[in-house]
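Friendly challenge for the regulars: who can give me the structure tokens for this chain first? No prize, just bragging rights.
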Amino acid sequence: MDLLEPHPQGAVLRTSIMKTDSPIAVELVEATKIFRTKKTFFGRSGEQVTALDRVSFSIRQGEIFGLVGESGSGKTTAGRLIVKLDEPDSGKVLVDGVNLSEIRGHKMKRFRRRIQMIFQDPYQSLNPYLSVYQTVCEPVVIHRLAAPQKRLETVVSALSQVGLTPPEDYLFRYPHQLSGGQRQRVAIARSTVLNPEIIVADEPTSMLDASISIQIFNILVRLKQNLNATFLFITHSLAAALYLCDRIAVIRKGKIVEMGPAKAIIRKPEHPYTRELIRSQPRFRKKTEQRGSFRPWENGATSS
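First reply, four minutes later:
Bragging rights claimed.
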């Protein structure tokens, strides 16, 4: 039997929470986000698109929490609310119990340092006019993380953490001189050079092939361990969520339809949409599950 083979279950919604004493780092409470399309050429009023419809979930400190769904399901919008790139129309987004709508002024700058986002497309998230050094050093300068004479050392350390070695070979390259995997590593280095407490990874491997994706997974796990960071991992792949995440929430059309421990949801999905997502995934044979602590990043791979 395949690991991702769906099991027949009832329609009961799973909302179990990981057993841990860790405090809650991030929480969405009944968050709703509505986008309004622009007027058409003929003057017709724009339509309303509900990206999130009263979405609630929490992420505990040190946890990798996966948000899984198809394109247009609202998962990226949830991530953007957490990093305060968008504001909810109703509901709340809490970080360490603080409502983000109340953060203003100098407190916002401190918030930006604590929470960072890894964007989906490394081809668009990097400024083509900035070198790798300038890209990774920019947040260091903005937040005054290191003295001018220490900035090069800080950037070199960040590049080493993401596997761009020797880092001196990459410092003065530009994005067009890098492969897709190398660009995403630079984007990750830029996001983590501030040693953030919370990282939102928005489908960081969707633009990469399978072998490079495994390397990126490896980097994210190491960063989670080294920084003791909390992760929101946004993906359309339940297979990736299974390998990386402690818990996952499945989102469809702006609503959470199932939530719980990653392995439990994969083994016994309870919502029809979750079962449909599983059927769309490549099959992993049962022997993979029997390896127990098997993780794709344990195989090792060279950087690309």
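The beta strands are 24-36, 48-60, 64-68, 90-95, 98-99, 115-118, 198-202, 230-235, 247-252, 255-261. Residues 210-227 form the longest helix (18 residues). Your move, everyone else.
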